[in-house]
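EI: anyone free to look at a 113-residue chain?
SC: sure, send it
EI:
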Amino acid sequence: MTPRFGGLTKALAVLFLVAGAGALSAGLSTGMPGDRPILLGLAVAFLAVGGALWMAYLWAWWAGVGVSALTVAVTLVTHLPKADAIVWSVALVLFFVSAVQGRSDRTRGPQPS
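SC: here you go
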């Protein structure tokens, strides 16, 4: 599957970059030493996926789908705040739309310039 890398994936990249910045900020300012490595690891992962989505790497698209789906599942199972599930569910919808757009681009073939 080849998604369309355009405005939707740029918006998803920004979402991952903001989540990464938030995890980085929390990791640097937390008073709980056990939480610091987890938060910093999440920050690195989210920032890497966000940056790679911005640069239109296919692996980042798949990583973003996986992280979004996992976040929704964990949020629903562990009874965390539902706002997290809503945000990442919207991200899943945007990933799906970009996949459909990419599929339709592929079936149409190259466009004349």
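EI: The mean pLDDT is 87.
SC: 👍
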